[in-house]
Amino acid sequence: MNCRFCKAELNKVFVDLVNAPASNSFLTQEQLDEPETFYPLKIYVCGECKLVQIDEYKKSDDIFDKDYAYFSSFSTSWLEHAKNYVDMMINKLALNTNSIVTEIASNDGYLLQYFKEKNIPCIGVEPTSSTAKVAKEKGINVIEDFFGSKLADTLQKSDLILGNNVLAHVPDINDFVHGLKIALKENGTITMEFPHLLNIIKENQFDTIYHEHFSYLSFYTVKQIFEKQGLKLYDVEKLPTHGGSLRIYATHLENEKKDIFDNVANLLNEEKDFGLFDIEIYNNFQEKANKVKYDLLYFLLQAKKENKKVIAYGAAAKGNTLLNYAGVKNDLIEFVVDKSPYKQGKFLPASHIPILAEDEIKKMKPDYIIILPWNIKGEVMLQLDYAKEWDCKFVVAVPKLAII
Ligand SMILES: [Zn+2]
Questions:
Q1: Per CATH, which fold does 72-282 belong to?
Q2: pLDDT tens profile 290-314
């Protein structure tokens, strides 16, 4: 087994979550009586380039070819994030009606709609047809395909290529970044957002680990990957999204027009000081994940003993990793509520916890609501503020168990 990027032999385990079903494979009532497929969920770190990555297993088709998909537009905070980004980039790059913007993994058009509003020509690349359909209904031009060098050859060159939460999801990261190089105009800019490995380690975010994520990225490693394909990182920003993400800015290595911002050296120094350049920091993550698991179980068992009613909020991939690794089933958490009508009426994989609409909270009046997507806990608590009427408490499990 070799590193996806540098091809060095992979023999160091970062964390072993044993196995899990595809995290977005929500089950119908009928499927509850059928066997479920579990895939190994063991994450390695490359001793050479420090790329944290999933083991190569069977075919990724099973993981991705689901009729279910995540619809970005269901999160109001994410929409706001997208709108702010669009305004900022139009300004920064002086984009106009002659520019071309390409978004990879354009989902339901949650972001490109704002470029369209400003009459800036844009194209989405999105392999999931259910989300692509929604984007097309918004009048957005979508190519239904996976992005890579082969597709890049067929695209018009772009002034801006962006990808939010896609770089960590691609199996062949070298070919993907090579494709970015091909599809970029001479003075163009690439921005990519991904969860920052430094935060994953620092904040025990082991529930960010699921099969759809092939890589867990530090700036240090991403810089190596981009440079190998003739791209340089000229700026970087820290974002609060997904528990702490990076937004990197890249351009052609030979582009002299873009100066490299101090942020680049500063972040590299921060990662070096934290220890991401050395293998030792990667050694104790299993222990951190286990602590989160034990604390959650302790809380749930105690609540059960006291006859408290516990439900969860947010049927997201994160929650599935957490509940599955902790071995929680539908006896300890009665149901999970989710905004998305595509998920309501279905069940979480493995745990078989039913997914219901938010109205059920008012009917049941639970004692505790576990917020599974802890990264948007502020937004969720505001939305469920009415639960305080019956003294309901909010709970998060990551970075450590907290009753709010
Ligand atoms: Zn490597």
A1: Rossmann fold (3.40.50)
A2: 999 999 999 999 999 999 999 999 9
